[in-house]
């Protein structure tokens, strides 16, 4: 690679989003799992899972507000509501990514997301609805399918319209194999 090579805007955007995602995952794992790269930060059963030094570093990074919300939104016990809609874009994106990586932690819980509405049609002609969450930079995207509650079946939404969607978390088989996360009996609010 040439030492004088300059990155274009797209390359820089992708690099920045990747770094943000990695930082968000590390923060998430620090808060909820109590570990980073296998180093134990807390013992099971303790309420305070971050040290004062770590908290000060996070505050200085300007994300204390999102972390407080994220602590409250850790996948709770059954029949709970997990509200990611009040988080910043990067933390919500990282949380949805975590839902996709550990879906069994969220089964039968009610999840609230803020994003943009998109619809699509599969190869069999069946229509699907999605809440699309992007990172702050707009380069990283996570889509969550939702199945509307009967009360909203006749409502028409425009693609890219900002919405808040609340539904019961489930997993279904994908069209080409694999598993897809779905919010069932979704209630939609316009943002």
TrEMBL record:
Keywords, sorted A to Z: Membrane, Transmembrane, Transmembrane helix
Domain of life the protein comes from: Bacteria
Ranges that cross the membrane: 12-32
Name the record gives this protein: tRNA_anti-like
Organism the protein comes from: Lachnobacterium bovis DSM 14045
